[in-house]
Fold this sequence. Notes:
alpha+beta, Protein Transport Mog1p, Chain A, 45% helix, 7 helices, single chain
Amino acid sequence: MxxxxxxxxxYPSPEKCALTLETSKALEHLHECVKCQxxxxxxxxxxxxxxxxxxxxxISEQLQTRIMKEIGRRPSSKPVRxxxxxxxxxxxxxxxxxCLAGAWLSYWWPSRQLFRTVFEDHARYQxxxxxxxxxxxxxxxSWFRDKTDxxxxxxxxxxxxxxxxxxxxLKGRKAALVFYRKEGRTVSLFQLNGRGISLAALKQAELDxxxxxxxxxxxxxxxxxxxxxxxxxxxxxxxxxxxxxxxSSMQMKSRGY
Length: 257
């Protein structure tokens, strides 16, 4: 297990992280890795400093007494009885809103969880572990051709170097994963069949006339768009502005196919 995976699993700290099947492996890595130990130590010290700066001022007893006296002076109000018809209308309205929210959540939530899984896969393949190493977009597209049920397009970029690709599975969905390098950092481009995926689960952004969904999680940023029924998801620990620029360039390139 490498450092990015360990920090992702043990976030926000080894004492407060969620327990998963990978937690024990992450703790073993932390026990042996000085850099990860320094990382979490710095996080704890920063949090302690922030709390000290914020302070912890308490309300004086005099002020508490005044507040209680003021509350005691106010007359208690009797509940207002509404007509039966109005109560029935309010109950029906509340039931409708509840059902509408439930339907929307059932459509939105699976997509939200899928995008969380994309972050985890990016952390897992942080070193761009490819099944095929190539800087040729044509070679990678050919390799993916009989491995997915959709056409995989590999955009070539002036600002990032193409290094390879692999096949992966996200929540039971087959996905093509293409790796780039920018400023020494790995950029992952996931491509999935867009059926059943809602970009409305993401915050919305617009860059150079291109509509993008965006999301951040545990130090990583994500930008997504849909083109011809295929959802493209770009993930990296680059600054969000840089990532959005990359995603916008990929969206314009994908339109040229």
